[in-house]
Structures are given as structure tokens and as C-alpha cells.
Design goal:
The protein is an alpha+beta fold. It contains six helices and 15 strands. The strands form three sheets. It has an eleven-stranded antiparallel beta sheet with strand order 1-2-5-6-8-7-12-13-11-10-9, sandwiched between helices. It has a two-stranded antiparallel sheet with strand order 3-4. A two-stranded antiparallel ribbon has the order 14-15. The chain is globular, with a radius of gyration of 20 Å. The two termini are 29 Å apart.
């Protein structure tokens, strides 16, 4: 992997990740951009104990531009984008309309490919490995920034999810706090350790799924994918490395080598769930990593959650009163049935 760091016209950082050392990344951003002006602040909810980011400047962000005006495509003569180069492998840059900025954290955009019409599932294994390298490198770098407590790499895919740019991309958030979901997991992790005399909750969950087998989707040598026993979403898969590690930088070479094949297969199966004539499946893919300074970070298990809000062909799972009001989910698809369907749509080998 070759990494090249440069700056956009308004001073934001841009990083190219290339598979080949011969790549030259010296194209300048020639846009007459004004300095980035953000109004991001993090407010604490005293009743719930969590945080809300207030970012009014995001009202003016780019919203469903036509393909020929996509800000994530490579630049060309007469149309300059966020990527000055005429082509690229993987590119990461600071978001011009960040939810978190300054003392409130940092937001980055990760472009998986220069091909506007592709998706992550269309990537080669080599390109998916390069994306993993970028996620890993950015996790390590952002974790070293003062005030950053947790790094979150994720992809939102599909208009149904709320994506406003169709180009295949994801994001990375560097939070100035440990997120509420992660804090909750750390609490249950500690409670399980006390109740069992030292057992690790993540290890026990993985062991229980392997013993049950009904919800296993893919068993790799170094990764395991399964539908969780209490899945919240109609089709939801958790992907764990078999060797527990707290974050992406801690993965060993064997796990890193196998990941592209396993993950690409999962994404391709998601696109087959609802039949060959169905539109691409909208999904969220979310990496859960240990907070930077958590006391129990060595006990935390890196894992990815992949889920869709589509519950059946042509119908979405909306968060209604119980989910949005009380955070009590009601799942229309039994997890065992979801796992069976995901096994049925495996790629032919």
C-alpha cells in the first residue's frame, strides 16, 4: 500500500491509498473554495446520559446531485470535485459538512472506488483489502488525536437509508466520547465477567452461536458471520474475527488476508435476499471498536454489524413507537429464518 497525504483548497486533509507504489498523486485542488465554517457542538442529555451533536451547517450540504456533478468522482477538465486526481484507488478526506468538528471530533469520507456506478460488493478482493488498510490506518491516526475517545468506521448504502450521495463511499467518525451503545456493551461485559467469575461475554456469545449452528451464515478460518439470537433488524449479520481483538489495528495478518473474501460474500448475499429482480439492498455496515481509553478495552471484541431496513420485497422496516419511543425493537423476521435465507443465496463455488 502507498499512502499520499495532501490538502484540498480549503485546507482539509486528503489521503490517497494506492495498491501500487508507482502511483503519483500531485494533482492540485484548483477550486476557489472558501474556508470551512462549521457550527458543530456536542450537548449532553442529562436524563439519558448520552450526547447529541448539533450541526446546523449541515443543512446546506450537497443533496442528491446528478451523476455528472458527483463530488466524489475524480476531477476532470471543466469539473473539479473533492478528489483532484483524474483517477484513484481509495481516497479519504475530511468532510466539508461534518457532524463533528474541532473540539467536538472529526468526520472523514472514505471513497471505495472511483467508479460512480459500482458498490462495495463489486470490488475485487485486492481493492477490499485496500479499504481495510485505509480503515485501519485512519483508526490508528484518529485514535492518537487529543480528545478522541472512539473511532467509528461505517457505510450507509441506499437512498432508503438516507444516503445523499450515490457514489460508493463510507464515513469515519472520531467521537470525543464513547458512544452510548458501546458504553452499554462495556457494562454488560463487566456484569457478565462478575457473574461468571471471569468469562468474556463476547467469547461466550461466539461460542454459543457455534454450538447452536442454526444462525451461522459463514464460517471462515479466521472470521465467523452469524445472525444474532436477538437480532433487532429483519436481516442482520454480525461478523467477528475468531481471535478476539479490540480494534482494526490489532487484527493479525491471517485475519486481514481472509477478510475481503468473507465480507464481499456477505454483501453479495445481501443483494440476493429478495430475489434476482429486486433493487440493491439498502444496508448499514458498522464497525464496533473499543474506545481508545476504556479500562476494559482489551476485553472488547472488534466486530462488524451489517443490517438492512428492508423486511421483505418492496417493504421497509420503519422505527415506530416502540422502537423510536422506548428503544424496544420488534423484529418481523425470525433470526433463524434470516440465517437460512442468507445461506440459501450463497455464491456458487
Amino acid at each position: 500500500m502507498k499512502k499520499t497525504t495532501t490538502r484540498l483548497a480549503d485546507g482539509r486533509e486528503l489521503i490517497y491509498y494506492d495498491a501500487h507504489d508507482a502511483a503519483v498523486r500531485d494533482a492540485a485542488d484548483r477550486r476557489p473554495l472558501d474556508p470551512v465554517a462549521t457550527a458543530s457542538e456536542v450537548r449532553h442529555d442529562r436524563l439519558l446520559g448520552d450526547f447529541v451533536a448539533v450541526a446546523s451547517h449541515r443543512q446546506g450540504r450537497t443533496y442528491h446531485p446528478p451523476a455528472d456533478a458527483c463530488p466524489l468522482c475524480p476531477s476532470r477538465e471543466g469539473r473539479h470535485s473533492e478528489i483532484p486526481a483524474a483517477d484513484y484507488d481509495v481516497a479519504v478526506f475530511e468532510n466539508r459538512f461534518p457532524s463533528l468538528a474541532g473540539d467536538s471530533g472529526r468526520c472523514e469520507v472514505v471513497c471505495f472506488t472511483s467508479d460512480h456506478d459500482a458498490s462495495f460488493a463489486d470490488l475485487t478482493e485486492d481493492r477490499a483489502a485496500l479499504v481495510l488498510d485505509a480503515w485501519t490506518d485512519r483508526t490508528a491516526a484518529l485514535s492518537r488525536l487529543p480528545g478522541v475517545e472512539q473511532v467509528f468506521c461505517f457505510e450507509n448504502r441506499g437512498a432508503e437509508i438516507g444516503v445523499t450521495l450515490g457514489h460508493p463511499h463510507g464515513q469515519i467518525y472520531a467521537y470525543p466520547f464513547a458512544t452510548p451503545r458501546t458504553e452499554r456493551m462495556l457494562r454488560t461485559l463487566a456484569a457478565h465477567r462478575r457473574a461468571t467469575g471471569g468469562a468474556n461475554l463476547f467469547d461466550d456469545v461466539v461460542a454459543d452461536e457455534l454450538a447452536d449452528k442454526r444462525r451461522i451464515v459463514i464460517e471462515g478460518e479466521h472470521w465467523l458471520a452469524f445472525v444474532p439470537y436477538a437480532a433487532h433488524w429483519p436481516y442482520e449479520v454480525h461478523l467477528y474475527p475468531r481471535r478476539r481483538v479490540p480494534d482494526l489495528p490489532a487484527l493479525d495478518e491471517a485475519a486481514r488476508t481472509e477478510f475481503p473474501r468473507i465480507y464481499l460474500e456477505l454483501l453479495r448475499r445481501f443483494d440476493r435476499i429478495f430475489g434476482p429482480d429486486a433493487p440493491p439492498t439498502p444496508y448499514i455496515a458498522a464497525w464496533h471498536q473499543a474506545p481508545v481509553h476504556a479500562e476494559d478495552r482489551a476485553e472488547f471484541a472488534l466486530h462488524l454489524e451489517l443490517f438492512t431496513i428492508r423486511r421483505t420485497s418492496g417493504k421497509l422496516k420503519f422505527l415506530a413507537g416502540s422502537e423510536s419511543g422506548m428503544n424496544v425493537f420488534i423484529n418481523d423476521v425470525p433470526p433463524e429464518a434470516a440465517a437460512e435465507r442468507l445461506r440459501e443465496v450463497a455464491s456458487e463455488t
